[in-house]
UniProtKB/TrEMBL annotation, chain A:
Its main location: membrane. It comes from Natronomicrosphaera hydrolytica. Keywords: Cell membrane, Membrane, Transmembrane, Transmembrane helix. It comes from the Bacteria. It is a multi-pass membrane protein. Residues 134-432 form the NADH:quinone oxidoreductase/Mrp antiporter transmembrane domain. The chain crosses the membrane at residues 6-22, 29-50, 77-99, 111-132, 138-158, 170-190, 210-234, 246-270, 276-298, 305-325, 345-366, 378-399, 419-438, 459-479. Belongs to the CPA3 antiporters (TC 2.A.63) subunit D family. It is found in: Cell membrane; Membrane. This is Complex I subunit 5 family protein.
From TrEMBL, chain B:
PANTHER family: NA(+)_H(+) ANTIPORTER SUBUNIT D1, NADH DEHYDROGENASE. Belongs to the CPA3 antiporters (TC 2.A.63) subunit D family. Residues 129-424 form the NADH:quinone oxidoreductase/Mrp antiporter transmembrane domain. The chain crosses the membrane at residues 6-25, 37-59, 79-100, 112-139, 165-186, 207-226, 246-265, 272-295, 315-338, 375-393, 413-438, 459-479. Keywords: Cell membrane, Membrane, Transmembrane, Transmembrane helix. It is a multi-pass membrane protein. It is found in: Cell membrane; Membrane. The keyword Cell membrane applies. This is Complex I subunit 5 family protein. It holds the Pfam family Proton_antipo_M. It comes from Natronomicrosphaera hydrolytica.
Automatic annotation (TrEMBL), chain C:
Its main location: membrane. The keyword Transmembrane applies. This is NADH-quinone oxidoreductase subunit K. It comes from Natronomicrosphaera hydrolytica. Keywords: Cell membrane, Membrane, Transmembrane, Transmembrane helix. Belongs to the CPA3 antiporters (TC 2.A.63) subunit C family.
């Protein structure tokens, strides 16, 4: 059954090849079919792990420490499942989005967007799944680099100057970051002679080379995750890309490097994490929440606003670090903070993709993303407006939504461990979020004025609505995801490392 | 089928489903929308009656939905919830009729009625909430569902009011949430229970409990419009009249007052709160609010603003009753929860009728209006006299019990506050009544509905008269076994059973 | 005291830092792309330094495999970056990102 993990990587790759080679007009159909198959596979892997526990798969029969091993536990499939749901929805939305857009833009020499979109998108999806399934530092580098390159390539579906420069900046940042990561990998390999996350974690010692590797890899991944103040590339990139691509970048791509950071910190460098380290990350996170939100409030264009909101929301996810690390006399990792942070990531993925798709619908309709042009949106585009508002509810962390459950656990952890200042940041950040969400909603309720709204495909709005509803509904039933997160989280890794070392000894 | 499990959910769904269905209706499907609205309201009322009867015969209605381990949605019917549920169900039906009449021909009605239903759903959820977490979920849902109603007209002042409303309520909500989470961490539970859940922690965590209480009151006080957290309420008057009626009588402000009742009685319990020294300051705050609201009301010429400040004042009676130890004061607080709703909604209906029919918005324009619109003015008079607390109106019953309770608790100064407030009430209501009946109009009325057979549209008049009659009935028949007073006495009996 | 591998590794780190400085401080896109390539080479140098280590000195094949893979990635990324730079040049007539100047 563990072959399914491999299929979740190979299927989208096959799909990418098929849509690349095949005739362009068939690309949406073929790509859509492969997207569906990939999503189903991802969902099945998630279900299998939820049902049957941690899975491992040795590619070509070569095990660790030499071979490339795929390792799947609760955290992996949480990411895999999240990607499956969000990516499928975005695929559906892009079916209609690019159809309409290509129809509208008939300039000479313009390639069929859909023809270019599908191969790149499916490659990106495959790379993300590869990143989630790998337990090997170098393999992760490859995945990371593929994610970065295909994400930049995906942006280029939109072809105006803004997109080009934003893509270039993103590419440079991304390459720089992954080289930093790679140098860290080299240092770890020099010191420990293996690339397996768990094997290194088990024998880690705190000496200069390890510290340096940790610093290099962390900062590299900070850049990729756009953690404040290294977020310079994110707002232009996420705001200038075409609608569905923005959704992909904001909802999924930044989560890959975030996931990787967590794996590194809590598996490889777990012994080096100290309360001080946690507080430092916490300060950056708080900076992201406040700085990102204030920037979002200052924006006058919708997509930039949403992009800055991503910067802020990433801060919430990073807050799980200071809250999870033992603090104030406690000995154990705080599992509640961990689950809360991860749940925040899930609800953000759903809500943010909904928001960008809703924005895409509005942009198609209004032809501008200046917020002041949205007067009367609530009446003209009720579904898109409602989707935006619902997604906003989740981002604000108001009940009942996934964001609320996450906030509950994060604030609980903050109070429980005596770090009440993070509770203040989280609750205050929610208010800042409300400020920029309602800044948009406000215009929607004004009486309409010209420019007139053009009709938008219903499917695009409906997809946004479904995602937004999901972001809210996961706040009403979180038992299963939380159970999933507890399967082989970094804190119950002892058993796994034990078997590994046993194998090495043989 | 387990009815005791599903009924609370059904009650929620009767308005939630209606709301969602209405969103999908086109603007001009007036008939379908009206039928849906009324059907939803009637079904909810019937279900509430069913639950009421069931509870009297001893059925325990309870729904538990786990969200994550140790964290569940709990809907439960007890006497306090019945009180609030009945009020909301009855007034929703009446207000729906009124709103259909009021909004005839105005734009965006599907959106309006959709959010209106969501608003009632949230109120019902608040009434049914069996623990603080569930309470909070519906409390915030109410904030969100009301926002579109407040800004419905889309004018600059409406948007400004909406922004202030959100600022106050969301900030309060964040503080409230911090209090709840802290409480949960300390005690491990947040279920409402007679006798409170904190008696074991009074000695060990006195200061934590005090801070928690302040945090929660900050959240609840915003909606209950306790001074100095009341700023949003008079501004929210820009909303259409049915919204003001619902906001002031049932949904938003009542949710705050209801939350204060729940938290004081069933999280802290009166003895614990008293021991921690929390009730004294709360009583003082409530008294200040009562007097301040009345004084401000006195200074308003705009009728709806006068009523709004009157709400600030009247609501604080509930808080005041809660803050006085003793069963009589509790009866006064609980019964005022219902009585204030009936009287205030009558007044707002009437204010809406004046505005819609004759374009009268100010007290100074009301000379002789009783001759042109005798029925509406009669209803208004009933509401106003009730607010002042003249027997046999409902308001008298509330004030009587509050006064008795204060004397029983040896807090004579509260009686003084009640007397001063009643005088102020009289000062800002009686002149209206006087000029409306006994002065002659300044000129011809600015008729908006000349073709009406009655003094105004039937759908506007009937609700006002109905609620006026109800508020008289609640006073006159206070001794009957199904009156609000009887239910309040049952609740107070239970609360003070073991003491 | 300091063996050969360590010297190579230190050299690699120094080159990496210089290249990083170049990447950040130059606005010209081709220079930036070259800086990235030098960073990559520094990392490969580091890997190369690791192939010979331990006593007795044996050759570890894994870093070699990684370097080869890394070079493939670097070539692809460079090609992509250059084509993007060309597109920007075609569109704006400049080989720099807007709002960036030479340090």
């Amino acid at each position: 059954m563990s072959d399914l993990v491999v299929w979740s990587i190979c299927l989208p790759l096959l799909g990418a090849a098929a849509t690349f080679v095949g005739p362009g007009r068939l690309a949406p159909a073929v790509g859509g079919a492969f997207a569906l198959a990939t999503a189903v596979t991802g969902a099945m892997v998630t279900w299998l792990v939820y049902d049957g526990g941690v899975m491992r798969h040795e590619l070509g029969g070569w095990g660790a420490p030499l071979g490339v091993e795929l390792y799947v536990d609760g955290l992996n499939v949480f990411m895999l499942g999240m990607t499956a749901v969000v990516a499928l929805a975005i695929s559906v939305a892009s079916l209609t989005y690019f159809g309409v857009r290509d129809h509208a833009a008939s300039g000479p020499g313009r390639w069929s967007s859909a023809g270019g979109y599908w191969p790149v998108w499916l490659t990106l999806w495959a790379s993300m799944n590869l990143a989630f399934a790998s337990a090997d530092l170098f393999n992760l580098y490859i995945a990371l680099e593929l994610v970065g390159l295909s994400a930049v390539a995906l942006m280029l579906i939109g072809r105006d100057t803004q997109v080009l420069t934003a893509a270039m900046r993103y590419l440079l940042a991304s390459l720089m970051a992954s080289l930093g990561y790679l140098l860290g990998v080299a240092m770890l390999y020099a010191r420990y002679g293996t690339l397996d996350l768990y094997l290194i974690g088990a024998q880690l010692t705190g000496e200069p080379a390890t510290w340096m590797a940790m610093a290099l890899m962390s900062v590299g991944l900070f850049v990729k995750t756009a953690l404040f103040p290294l977020h310079f590339w994110l707002p232009p990139a996420h705001s200038s890309a075409p609608g569905p691509v923005s959704a992909i970048l904001s909802a999924l791509v930044v989560k890959v490097s975030f996931y990787l950071l967590l794996r590194l910190w809590f598996v490889v460098f777990a012994d080096l994490l100290s309360p001080t380290f946690g507080q430092v990350v916490g300060v950056l996170a708080a900076g992201a929440i406040v700085g990102g939100s204030v920037q979002a409030i200052l924006q006058r264009r919708l997509k930039l606003l949403i992009a800055y909101s991503t910067v802020a929301q990433l801060g919430y996810m990073f807050l799980l670090v200071p809250l999870t690390i033992p603090y104030g006399g406690s000995e154990a990792w705080h599992g509640g903070a961990w689950s809360g942070g991860m749940y925040h990531m899930l609800s953000h993925a759903l809500a943010k993709s909904a928001m960008f798709l809703a924005a895409a619908a509005v942009l198609l309709s209004v032809g501008s993303d200046r917020i002041r042009h949205f007067r009367g949106m609530a009446h003209e585009l009720p579904v898109a407006t409602f989707a935006f508002a619902l997604a906003g509810v989740s981002l604000m962390g108001l009940p009942p939504s996934g964001g609320f459950v996450a906030k509950w656990f994060l604030v609980s952890a903050a109070i429980e461990t005596g770090q009440w200042w993070w509770a203040v940041v989280i609750l205050g950040g929610g208010l800042l979020t409300a400020a920029y969400i309602f800044m948009v909603i406000r215009y929607a309720f004004l009486p309409p004025s010209p420019p007139a709204f053009k009709p938008v495909p219903k499917l695009l709005q409906a997809t946004a609505m479904v995602l937004a509803l999901l972001a809210v509904l996961i706040g009403l039933r979180a038992v299963e995801p939380f159970a999933l997160l507890e399967m082989g989280t970094p804190f119950v890794e002892a058993a796994h490392v034990g078997t590994h070392q046993g194998e090495v000894a043989e | 089928m387990n009815w005791a499990y599903w009924l609370p959910l059904l009650i929620l769904f009767s308005s939630l489903g209606t709301g969602i269905a209405i969103f999908f209706l086109d603007e001009d499907q007036v008939l379908v929308r009206t039928v849906l609205n009324l059907a939803g309201a009637v079904v909810k009322l019937l279900l509430t009656v069913l639950v009421f009867v069931g509870m009297l015969t001893g059925v325990a209605y309870e729904t538990r939905l786990p969200i994550v381990p140790g964290f569940e949605l709990l809907l439960r019917v007890d006497a306090i919830s019945i009180l609030f549920m009945s009020l909301s169900a009855v007034l929703w039906l009446v207000t729906t009729v009124y709103a259909v009449g009021y909004l005839e021909g105005s734009p965006y009605r599907s959106r309006f009625f959709g959010f209106f239903s969501l608003c009632v759903t949230a109120t019902m959820g608040i009434a049914l909430a069996g623990n603080l977490l569930t309470f909070f979920i519906f409390y915030e849902m109410l904030t969100l569902a009301t926002y579109p109603l407040v800004v419905h007209r889309g004018t600059r002042s409406a948007l400004l009011a909406g922004r202030n409303y959100l600022f106050y309520t969301l900030t309060g909500g964040a503080l409230f949430l911090a209090g709840i989470i802290w409480l949960k961490l300390l005690t491990g539970e947040t279920d409402f229970a007679v006798g409170g859940i904190l008696s074991d922690f009074v000695d060990s965590h006195a200061w934590s409990l005090r801070v928690m209480f302040v945090l929660m009151m900050a959240g609840l006080g915003v909606k209950a419009a306790l001074v100095p957290l009341h700023g949003w309420l008079p501004q929210a008057m820009v909303a259409p009249a049915p919204v003001s009626a619902l906001l002031h009588a049932v949904a938003v402000v009542k949710a705050g007052a209801y939350g204060i009742v729940r938290v004081v009685y069933e999280i802290f319990s009166t003895p614990v709160a008293y021991e921690l020294g929390l009730l004294g300051p709360l009583a003082v705050l409530a008294s200040v609010t009562i007097v301040y609201g009345s004084v401000r009301a006195l200074m308003q010429d705009d009728l709806k603003r006068r009523l709004a400040f009157s709400t600030v004042s009247q609501l604080a009676y509930i808080t005041l009753g809660t803050a006085i130890v003793g069963p009589l004061a509790s009866v006064g607080a609980l019964v005022h929860l219902v009585h204030q709703g009936l009287m205030k909604i009558t007044l707002f209906f009437c204010a809406g009728n004046f505005a819609e029919t004759l374009h009268v918005h100010k007290v100074s324009e009301m000379h002789g209006i009783g001759r042109r619109m005798p029925w509406t003015m009669a209803a208004f008079t009933v509401g106003a006299l009730g607010m002042i607390g003249l027997p046999p109106m409902a308001g008298f019953v509330s004030k009587w019990y509050l006064g008795l309770g204060a004397l029983a608790a040896e807090q004579g100064w509260v009686v003084g506050v009640l007397i001063v407030s009643s005088l102020l009430n009289a000062m800002y209501f009686l002149p209206i009544v006087h000029v409306a009946w006994f002065r002659s109009p300044a000129g011809p009325w600015d008729e908006r509905m000349p073709e009406a057979r009655w003094e105004t549209r039937m759908m506007l008049l009937a609700p006002a008269v109905t609620t006026a009659l109800l508020s008289v009935a609640a006073g006159v028949f206070a001794a009957s076994p199904i009156s609000p007073l009887a239910v309040a006495e049952i609740i107070a009996g239970r609360l003070y059973e073991g003491l | 005291m300091m063996d050969q591998a360590t010297i190579y590794a230190m050299a690699a780190v120094i080159v990496f830092c210089f290249a990083l400085w170049g990447l950040i401080s130059y606005a010209h896109l081709i220079r930036k792309i070259m800086a990235l390539n030098i960073m990559g080479s520094a990392v490969f140098l580091f890997f190369g330094a690791m192939t010979r280590r331990g006593e007795p000195e044996t050759t570890d094949p894994v870093p070699q495999a990684m370097v080869i893979t890394g070079i493939v990635v670097a070539v692809a990324a460079t090609a992509f970056a250059i084509s993007l730079a060309k597109a920007i040049h075609r569109r704006t007539g400049q080989l720099r990102l807007p709002e960036e100047r030479d340090a």
